[in-house]
Amino acid sequence: MQDNYKISACVVTYNNSSCAKVAVESVVQHTKSKELCMYVCDNNSTDNTLKTLKEIDGVSVIKLPDNLGFGKAHNAVLDKIDSKYHAVINPDIRIDSDVLSSLAEYLDNNPDVVMVTPKILNDDGTVQHLPKKTPSFKYVFLGRLGSMFGCLKKYREEYTRSNEQLTAPTEVDFCTGCFFLIRTDVFKKLGGFDDNFFMYFEDADLARRAKQFGKVMFVPEFSVTHLWERASSKSIKYLFIHLISYFKYMHKWRRHE
Questions:
Q1: H helix runs in the chain, sequence order
Q2: pLDDT tens for the chain, residues 1 to 257
Q3: Do 85 and 104 form a contact (C-beta atoms < 8 A)?
């Protein structure tokens, strides 16, 4: 088994220079055990994001002609990466250990796994319970109302599996797009993300397609911090995008069932 292989990583940015700088620098600083190829794909930011990130050593910045959305922007590196494993990382992520190398070694030791995500933490160190089951109406819609109607809270808990004690590596359906590692050859075979999704559910769709090649795993032994803003719960615009993406997801997968 070769230990000196490459890990590639990509962060997609759009007018978020300060948090993206922290994210990219933390990945570059802490990824030491493996060779890192770090990419930033910028969705035509109008602030100083591009200038700020170009100043970071060891980072390849790709300026995109327009705001292409999350998945399509990540796909811009598909023909550039020659790594063994590829990481998809949100610009609001912060790491404080060599989590990429650790997850890569987990994939080395588990050839039946194609995609892996660590435990996601809030800034205060508490666990961020993100979706782990296949999206459905009761999870996506009824679960969102759990904070207002206690009887519906159970759907969010089921969706995120927060009602379970997930202390060991666990197979999941939904691998959050905020931070995961995937086998690069599988990512390329899948054609990356389905760029019909501008934002939201492209991660659930990718994980569902990746499962034809092996398991998708949640590995809580390792963790990263996610400064989650939950834009779709605060903005009508992003809520609308969220709903459109959900219906695209359901329409796509209904045709496959």
A1: 17-30, 49-54, 70-74, 99-109, 137, 153-160, 184-189, 202-210, 231-234, 236-254
A2: 457 899 999 999 999 988 999 999 999 999 999 999 999 999 999 999 999 999 999 999 999 999 999 999 999 999 999 999 999 999 999 999 999 999 999 999 999 999 999 999 999 999 999 999 999 988 887 656 656 656 678 989 999 999 999 999 999 999 999 999 999 999 999 999 999 999 999 999 999 999 999 999 999 999 999 987 654 445 678 788 888 999 999 999 986 65
A3: yes
Mind listing the domains of the chain with CATH numbers? 6-254 (3.90.550.10)
Please, what sign has the CA dihedral across residues 242, 85, 99, 119? positive
Inter-residue contact 132 to 119 (CB < 8 Å): no
